[in-house]
Amino acid sequence: MVSRIAFYVLSFLFLSGCLSTHQRLLYDKKPAFYSYIVGGVHRDNSLLEHEADVYITPASCQKTITALLAYKALGSDYRYETKLSLTTKDVIITFSGDPTLRSEHVLKLLEALKEKRMPGKVILDASVFKTPAYSRNIIIDDMGTRYSRPVSSTNIDQNLISVTITPGVLGKPATIENNAAYTVECDVVTTLEKSAIKLSWNGEGIKASGNIHVADKPIMRAISPETIDGYILNKIKTILKTANISNAVVIVKDGAKLPKITEVIATHYSEPLGVILPPALKRSDNLVFDCIYLKIIHKEKPQTINEWQDGDKVFKSLIKTHFNVEMNNALFVDGSGLSRYNRIQPRQLFKLLQKGYGVKEFIDALPSPGEENSTLRGRALPKSIKAKTGIMSGISCLCGYNVDDISPQVFVIAAHNFAPPISGINPVLDGFVADCF
Questions:
Q1: pLDDT tens digit string along 199-216?
Q2: Cβ-contact 297, 312 below 8 angstroms
Q3: Domain of residue 42, residue span
């Protein structure tokens, strides 16, 4: 007991020094609005804090909240199901919002039809979510980008289109192809300059512009569809052609319009959530966390969810139920943190992370400094840190734990309203954490 008390006294004295140092130097290192809070996992009070009650935009630190609720509300054994059913004439593929579903999974599912030739349509049941494919709370320029993908009941191949650009003869156009059957307008010229290629949407087709070096190997780029239905129809038609199935395809989003009498003949199960979450946390996968967000809120209130922001009350209620933490005036409008409308106090997130330390799978899933395929791969943090980054224009957050100590510590630090580039702020946050631990 004496040694533990001594530890806390020394920690307080050390972190008090850290407080005065950082309040003096943080702004000098990189002008920004800073808020932070640090303390023990099992302590009621923080050891160090500054502006911890302001509301910040958490960016991808929001994923820690979604992950904790996923482990509690869905469970690590939860699996998404994609089902193949038959009526007397139609084939029905029932989607569940699985963010990991791939073309080969659907093709494998269709093997159950090898001995059957149905005279009707292939119906894609997209009724599990009623929300739009893009949240109305994101910036319109984010739509159709690699990092902001549409999210719906029907997700295939990460809802991402792969585009391959191959140089041609010097001075001539490059050749281009994609894996989702879209038309492409190619304004990429073969040159002696360093390759610089931009993908954008031009109506229903993809436009590629820029240049490619004549000696380059084929370059792969990715873009997400602006609308989900056309993408899914293209994908399914390609899959059906491979399976030698020529039936017409329709998407049905209203469950009341689906056939009532069906026979399930095959089911594809995703990996369990406990397998999906760790790599998604490490690479900060927006699609996975927004799919999980929609799954959680529809599970709790399936008849009342029409918009993404309808999940706000559900999330707050679940946080209170599972962690006994109040989220008064916080706002949760997605699961990934992509929207700037998300808001939370550093103190609220701190308290949730304190309670979340008891969820061992969550702690194990968090990235570690230097870890491959992780947002912490190049961060200068102590090896004892397990943390999640949150980054968007003018915002950088870091939250997590120091797990290699006499007593584990929790920290949340956020910097807002700083000038680019982002590379200038990350060392400041990393230095803060390193000094404190």
A1: 999 888 999 999 999 999
A2: no
A3: 2-76+275-436
